[in-house]
Amino acid sequence: MASRGNRAIQQFYKLPVPPPSQVKMAAYRPVCLDQPPDFRAALKEGKTLVGSCMTILNSDVARFTSNIGFDFLFLDLEHTPMSPETARDIIRSVHAHSEGDTHVIVRIPTFGHEWVAWMLDAGAAGIVVPHSETAEQAKQIVEAAKFPPLGKRSYPPFTAVPGLTDGLPKGKQSLYQVYNEHAAIIMQIESKKGCENAEEILAVPGVDATMIGAGDLRLELGLPPTQDGPEASYQTCVQQVFKAAKNNGDMPVFGFAFGPAFIESKVKQGYRGIMVTSDVTALVYKQMADLKLAREMIEAREANNGSDGKKTEDIVPEVEALSVGEQDSSKS
């Protein structure tokens, strides 16, 4: 996604505008934004997708985040008291404001078929299933996520409105084929048992990718719940999942990677889906950094008691003046 922001403003404030994505996610947008984008095809491209985690129960946060340029947004319903209605509104807000350039995958809170149906009916690009430990669980999810003959998902009469939201891309014979072939199923493995059964879990037809829940896995192993680590017991489990992913069609492995050190380690290990930040951490830590900077500047100024001979304007960083036209646009 190319940045939609004003270039002059970006340069003036030295905003960290990311380069365009390696994967052109807009190529996988659906005919109608009520439908899921073809996230399965994006996964098969083999490139690393970069996303952010959304936990704030507000579609306006999602609206702004959807314009940044992430390949996908990871909507976490497992660790937030988010209602299906709020989740649906967030998914549709991201689709609308990114114009299909940013996809939404949803970590559902339970194995219940209703959460699978609600999120896929809302147009989610995929679902992430936490605490996956057996092939039977994976089969249960596939059955709930796929329309016949691949599963038992129920026809959504208030989503697929005939003649309105049921447009078909070239080569597709029905809307059910679109849903079955576009939305991805990602089984999250985060226990020793799950790692030991990874080969069987990922071999279930319909499973498209996996995710390693490092925090819970490390807690179970008696380790600090960080996003990664060199411990032999942990790395043995990680390698079990990576081997299973490799043996089952070179499936992508997802994981959290907050901060430079974890991003570097996850990229080196071959993760192909990384969540590098979240709405909460970005909101909190940026405010902490700005507050720290302000307190330090005030403390330094007061320590000098204004007797250093400098005027207040002398300590303000020099900035290049905007042109008249740019000044006008910045006030709007």
Automatic annotation (TrEMBL):
Biased composition (Basic and acidic residues): 303-314
Keywords noted in UniProt: Lyase, Metal-binding
MF GO annotations: aldehyde-lyase activity; metal ion binding
UniProt protein name: HpcH/HpaI aldolase/citrate lyase domain-containing protein
InterPro entries (alphabetical): Aldolase/citrate-lyase_domain, HpcH-HpaI_aldolase, Pyrv/PenolPyrv_kinase-like_dom, Pyrv_kinase-like_dom_sf
Domain HpcH/HpaI aldolase/citrate lyase: 59-282
One Gene Ontology cellular component annotation held by this UniProt entry: cytoplasm
Region (Disordered): 303-332
Keyword Cell membrane attributed: no
Family annotation (Pfam families): HpcH_HpaI
UniProt key word Metal-binding: yes
